[in-house]
Amino acid sequence: MSTVAEIIETMKSKFNADAASGMENVFQFSIEDGDDFFLTINDGSFEIAEGENDDPSVTLIMTTETLSGLMSGDVDGMQAFMMGQLKAEGDIMLATKLSELFPV
């Protein structure tokens, strides 16, 4: 199983800047069995930081295994949400943009 740090490195290599054009959002990842981190998307660019953001646009709560599956394409985000493996708080519709921002 991948670590959160390994998954973050994968995210860096998969980022689709075109999909982030015009976006200004913060995606908080609350990892139940690992380290929390957040993505700050700013008009085609992004930064990843450890910890918690004070004002995220959306917070995604999951395990490391679910995050790894989402990033590899082995887990469908909507299915994970419906099965309770992924919880979202805030702008839930924004969570659906992750597959465009980080295509598998």
UniProtKB/TrEMBL annotation:
InterPro entries linked: SCP2_sterol-bd_dom (IPR003033), SCP2_sterol-bd_dom_sf (IPR036527)
SCP2 domain ranges (all copies): 9-102
Record Pfam families: SCP2
Protein name per Swiss-Prot or TrEMBL: SCP2 sterol-binding domain-containing protein
